[in-house]
Design brief:
The protein is α/β, with parallel strands linked by helices and 495 residues long. It has 2 domains: 282 residues, Aldehyde Dehydrogenase, Chain A, domain 1 (3-Layer(aba) Sandwich), CATH 3.40.605.10; 187 residues, Aldehyde Dehydrogenase, Chain A, domain 2 (3-Layer(aba) Sandwich). The protein is 39% helix and 21% strand. It contains 16 helices and 22 strands. Helix 1 packs parallel to helix 8 and helix 3 crosses helix 7. Bound molecules: 1,4-dihydronicotinamide adenine dinucleotide and magnesium ion. The site of 1,4-dihydronicotinamide adenine dinucleotide has 27 residues, from helix 8 and helix 9.
């Protein structure tokens, strides 16, 4: 009997399902060429869930080969755009049917609260539907130059796209990347993060069930330095999209430059300012500050990790925020009431606690939290540092955990200068009742997103991406289609 490369898994919330553990290449789950596997951990218990096959260079080659064939020949390249759209709609419907299992897997593997995982799956489905709608609305232009010529442009797919995603929102990141790539007619080799391979493999099984031709989407599990690097360097991959750390983003750009100059889009880190003015609705603003930093355990590229409060309301906000942070339910990710689950891995857990030490050594004041919660699983108490100064590392470096830094500001000029004093530029927010203040701040803050009286207001239809070292290119919205198409100009001599 042929190996199936699936395993029966029972999730602690009672959900039982078939987990693919192979590499998904050419619509089949297969073993890695050298048989290597790696362990998948449940961060809420630190216990093993299963082992999955690990892709190395030769497996990346096989996936790229499948994607190349699918792109160049066969049903995919000849498929009408509206039929590509139909497949994407069908995939979204299947995901909806499988929402309970997808969200349970996501929680099991990442440690995130189940309520958040359900929201993630909803957003992932919405993203696929959004790009399904674009599939037959992508077209070129006719350009008038002179009576003797006829010119037109075609917006063509790029080819095989390498997509490297992180562990904080595995399903959303998968769909942000695969959605626009498929709507525009590309094929894909996607590598999940080594901390969280399970939901991507399950989604791969739904892609097969949907009826996508073999090789259109290939999903591999593996480590960054091996499989990720092989994607970034691959001569037959013509575009790479990456979400993760700035340091790896740099290495991907270098690899692209050193190999075939593949097109690169990067969505990297941030240290985003969340700003409260004296005239804000304080109760609501505190709610958004809390959500801004503690949502998904602070493991959000856009996290509002620098909170700037105007002098007139500083003491009031600090007191209210402390109270609010202490109300967050931290614990069992499968409990519906939980807001904050476990951090994703031991490495991230230790890194975050190190930053808590750094903040204390630098002289900032912890007003709440500051330590591990419990003795089992990677749980950290929501932590708030007050009186943080601009020179402190906790004000400058991305912590990527439930740790917030608060500081005071005088006026708009002062806070714009502080907000922009960063190497990053991903997101930001202002809380004010004054429209002029909101518009002026939105104009002057150097970041890809500015939210007003809300936070983490990311939406699949609205472009998202970074200024400065937070990356380049925009995901979501119509903008993302540009990442996956190139323009061909055809000029015909009519004389
Ligand atoms: P990372 O950047 O190492 O990992 C993200 C993805 O890149 C994973 O799939 C990983 O396997 C892959 N990768 C790693 N090294 C690679 C290489 N040399 N070539 C190609 N791919 C490679 O991030 P990590 O270590 O998991 O987290 C470290 C920090 O990165 C976090 O504390 C956070 O500050 C930041 N980060 C930012 C994310 C975002 O959403 N922008 C997501 C995850 C991490
Ligand atoms: Mg895991």
């Amino acid at each position: 009997m042929a190996q199936s490369y699936h395993e029966k898994i029972k999730i602690p919330n009672g959900v039982e399902y078939d987990q693919p553990v192979g590499l998904f290449i050419n619509n089949e789950f297969v073993a890695s060429k050298d048989g290597a596997k790696f362990e998948v951990i449940n961060p809420a218990t630190e216990k093993s869930i299963t082992h999955v096959y690990e892709a190395k260079e030769a497996d990346v080659d096989a996936a790229v080969e499948a994607a190349t064939l699918a792109f160049e020949s066969g049903p995919w390249s000849r498929m009408a755009p509206h039929d590509r759209g139909r497949l994407l709609y069908k995939l979204a419907d299947l995901m909806e049917e499988h929402l309970p299992v997808l969200s349970s897997i996501e929680t099991y593997d990442t440690g995130k609260a189940i309520a958040i995982a359900r929201g993630d799956v909803g957003a992932a489905i919405a993203t696929i539907r959004y790009y399904a709608g674009w599939a037959d609305k992508i077209h070129g232009k006719v350009v008038d130059t002179d009576a003797g010529s006829f010119n037109y442009t075609i917006q063509e797919p790029i080819g095989v796209c390498g997509q490297i995603v992180p562990w904080n929102f595995p399903l959303i990141m998968f769909c942000w990347k695969v959605g626009p790539a498929l709507a525009t007619g590309n094929t894909v080799v996607l590598k999940s993060a080594e901390q969280t391979p399970l939901s991507s493999l399950y989604l791969a099984s739904l892609i097969k069930q949907t009826g996508f031709p073999p090789g259109v989407v290939n999903v591999i599990s593996g480590f960054g330095a091996i499989a990720g690097a092989a994607i970034a360097e691959h001569p037959k991959i013509h575009k790479v999209a990456f979400t993760g750390s700035t340091v790896v983003g740099r290495s991907i750009m270098r690899a692209a430059a050193n190999s075939n100059l593949k097109k690169v889009t990067l969505e990297l880190g941030g240290k985003s300012p969340n700003i409260i003015f004296n005239d804000a609705d304080i109760e609501k603003a505190v709610e958004w500050v809390n959500f801004g930093i503690f949502f998904n355990g602070g493991q959000v590229c856009a996290a509002g990790s620098r909170v700037y409060v105007q002098e007139g309301v500083y003491d009031k906000v600090v007191a209210a925020f402390k109270k609010r942070a202490e109300m967050n339910v931290v614990g069992d990710p499968f409990d519906d009431a939980t807001f904050q689950g476990a951090q994703v891995s031991q490495r991230q857990f230790e890194r975050i606690l190190e930053y808590v030490d750094v903040g204390q050594t630098e002289g900032a004041t912890i007003i709440t939290g500051g330590s591990r919660q419990g003795t089992n699983g990677y749980f950290i108490k929501p932590t708030v540092f007050a009186d943080v100064t601009e020179d402190m590392r906790i004000m400058k470096e991305e912590i990527f955990g439930p740790v917030c830094a608060i500081a005071k500001f005088k006026d708009l000029d002062d806070v714009v200068a502080k907000a922009n004093a960063t190497l990053y530029g991903l997101a930001s927010a202002v809380h004010t009742r004054d429209l002029n203040t909101a518009i002026e701040a939105a104009k002057r803050i150097r970041a890809g997103s500015v939210w007003v009286n809300i936070y983490n207001a990311i939406h699949w239809a609205v472009p998202f991406g970074g200024y400065n070292e937070s990356g380049n290119g925009r995901e979501c919205g119509k903008e993302a289609l540009r990442n996956y198409t190139q323009i061909k100009s055809v000029r015909i001599n009519l004389n």
